[in-house]
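Work Package 3 (structural annotation) set out to generate three-dimensional models for the target panel prioritized at the project kickoff. During this period the team completed the workflow that converts sequence records into discrete structure tokens, so that structures can be stored uniformly alongside our sequence database. As a representative example, we reproduce one entry of 355 residues exactly as it appears in the project archive.
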Amino acid sequence: MIELKNVTKYFKIDDEKKYILKNVTLTIPSNVNLGILGRNGAGKSTLLRMLGGIDFPTIGTISSPNSFSWPMGLAGGFQGSMTGRQNVKFVCRIYGKREAELQAVIEQVQEFAEIGDYFDMPIKLYSSGMKSRLSFGLSLAFDFDYLIIDETLSVGDENFKQKAKDALMKKIEHSNVLLVSHSMADLRKICHAGIFINDGKIFYYEDIADAIEAYHNINSVQENASASSSSAIYCSDGKCFDNINDAARFYKVRPMSIVQALTQNSGSNVYLKKVFWRDGQNKLPFQNWQNVVAGETIISSDGVIFENAQEASFFYMERIPKANIDKMHVSEVMQHENSFSKKLNVKFYYVSEYQ
């Protein structure tokens, strides 16, 4: 069980308070794998740091009789001038590992992280992905009541992602998970319940599907508001539009396709092979979609990018319920030669092939 009592968290920026949480009181029941959702900047990672004990509320208390791992995806507790091996030894000693156990932990973490010679180099030379791999492997070497994971499942190539997921699923047979992820498929697979952070408030849902629905509903409202009130949108083909909706209608794609280009891919729309930017911003060069996984990342003929087929199915299930598709629909469509969905009137491609 985790109890938040009258928790307020804010940061001062230019003498103004940016609130993450405002007077939140909440009890999270025991033995629950919890997914944490929210828009970028909502405070998901800050909440994880507070739960893990490496950050604290400005006002109020967070208490639990349980033990928590450090946030796997953050790796903020490493000493930069020490090597990976030295950091692992240091953590082992803090957590009371005996000398007889220490070497086994070192070998386990070194093998899992797959960072080669960097294991004996200073942490300050590591990329963020290498730090996350080391942090993830180190967390697996200890037994905690809760594993705290901040997007680490998206680190590395396809093989490492699967390795991390397999190791996590084995670990949570004896531990619970607090997971921040933008992958709805991972959240549905791993988590039972969910909390949604929005505008300084936390909403708890006993079913992760309800939390995901609330997240999508808020996103749709805010995206539509942004689309209708945003400044002019320019395109690299010389056209200009009053808002996102007008641009989407002109190019016959979903507004989400333009939103993704502007907010997630530096203005580049992979489907249209064009660059978009808002009035007052600089035009950036075209780039392919970031973090593409060959044979997994999918683009639809209405321009939207998905991490995998299941996420695509959930997207259309929620937005086009009349199509009456199930969560395996896109996966089944992708197995056909033309990858065309008659129910959705949409064609799907693997992004790596489409580019």
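The chain has a mean pLDDT of 87.
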